[in-house]
Amino acid sequence: MKVASIINYKGGVGKTTLTANIGAEIARQGRRVLLLDVDPQASLTLSFYRPEEWRTTLAPQRTIRHWYEARRPAGRRVSLVPFVTVPEAADFYVRAGGGQLGLVASDLMLGDVEERLAIEIGKAAAYRSREKYLRVIRRLGEALETVRDEAYDFVLIDCPPNFGIITRSAIAASDGVIVPARPEVLSTFAVDHLKLRLDEFRRQLHSAAGTGNVEQGSADGLAPHLLGIIFTMVRYARAGQLIPTFQNFVDQTRGRVATFDAMLRESQTYYASAPQRCVPAVLSERLGPEIEQELRLLVNEFMRKIGAIPRG
What range defines the domain where residue 70 resides? Predict the structure, then answer.
């Protein structure tokens, strides 16, 4: 089971669109995919469920907040399986090929969970309890351990646009991190800052894992690779050629950090309307050929980067 987190500090960069479409396409290809929405805005959840469905069937007791708040007698793990749902509209398109798309919904009150976790981290720092720090950071990873028997091939985590405890927990649970970014000044600036925070977080994990009773080197699994920047909402002057200002930012970024070759173009027609149908654009029967090709190339590149080989 391969796990990837999708994150950027800056909103409006297509983070949720990217997560939903990568996950849906992998499932359409016949694999088992779990989407985990840990962004309190719940945009990924609302890409698959209508607001009234979320309020009546998920919000009462089947969100990631409820998993966090579940009692843990004697430190025992709480299974994430009861909180996984299968969005019916998307499932209609992926089940024919033998795939499955599961979702753990977000919660508008997830910020309260973030505050409680931050307090735990603060106490851990105050009393120099590095083992406790690691337990808090590892909590989301332990949640994913409880779904391994469900034979998921991939888990994609849609993170909030910050570097809070939940985001760090998601990163620590991942094999790789993806950063969606528009080729523009503010977005690429956020990428640079995020990379610094990832490097700092990696050092903290190694420091914490190298003391107490925590095994040496165990932080390796908590410090995922940056799979790369995925440029989103790009525009083309002509077939295959970005407009000059976008190309300039792409070239500058590729000189500093790993990037994907595949990109996603701006398309209100396909991406903006998809949540209204609760089906990602990649599953649309009316998907334009250019968008379809870009999405397929992107998914294949993602699977290569994370260490999986696409089926022929």
Answer: 2-305
